[in-house]
Specification:
- There is one protein chain.
- The chain is an all-alpha fold.
- The protein has a single domain, classed as Serine Threonine Protein Phosphatase 5, Tetratricopeptide repeat (Alpha Horseshoe), CATH 1.25.40.
- α3 runs parallel beside α5.
- The longest helix has 16 residues.
Length: 191
């Protein structure tokens, strides 16, 4: 029996995206858009220290900037600094507890830290807020599979696959899998 690894995916907000429908705070102040774009560009080039410094500069000026905290969490996770990533996402979620974007990313970091109960909590909260969030359903399926619940895992994977088929995949991301990404049922996760 082959067990799937959790998606090693984190979602970074591309460019200077606006607020999510669940966020009451602006994700990015207007005077920080160029710096934020620099951070995204650095991230794409895998210049994670530079990207983190840009997000930290935004946070220094705007400590309540959900966009910067959330993306700082993504960068720190990509660097393997999971505790720092968790802290950044936890801070972002204090600013906006109903942000499904942050909840999914935070759930992935909790998974990477082997904090499975916390990961489940984040994925379930994301699904409550945004039932069409394929990544949250994938995360729940991965947890169910890891915890020996293949029926529940298959149900979550089916939901995620249907969401993608129907075109409701939120948010659009580039997915990066670890080398073993086969599901227990022998199918490949959707990319």
């Amino acid at each position: 029996m082959r067990i799937a690894s959790l998606l090693a995916t984190l979602v970074i907000t591309a460019g200077a995206a606006g607020a999510s429908p669940y966020s009451e705070r602006a994700r990015l102040p207007d005077d920080m858009r160029d710096l934020a774009q620099d951070a995204v560009d650095e991230y794409k080039l895998e210049h994670y220290d530079a990207a983190a410094a840009d997000y930290q500069a935004i946070i220094a000026k705007y400590p309540d900037c959900l966009y910067a905290w959330s993306n700082l969490g993504v960068v720190r996770s990509q660097q393997g600094h999971f505790e720092e990533a968790k802290e950044a996402f936890d801070h972002a979620l204090k600013l906006q507890p109903r942000d499904a974007f942050c909840l999914v990313n935070c759930g992935i970091v909790y998974w990477q830290m082997n904090l499975y109960a916390g990961a489940r909590d984040k994925f379930e909260r994301a699904v409550q807020i945004d039932p069409q969030n394929a990544l949250a359903h994938d995360g729940l399926g991965q947890l169910d599979q890891k915890q020996g619940r293949p029926k529940e895992a298959a149900e979550e994977f089916a939901i995620a696959d249907k969401i993608r088929k129907d075109g409701f995949f939120r948010p659009p991301v580039e997915r990066m899998y670890s080398p073993i990404d086969d599901r227990q049922d022998g199918t490949q996760a959707s990319r």
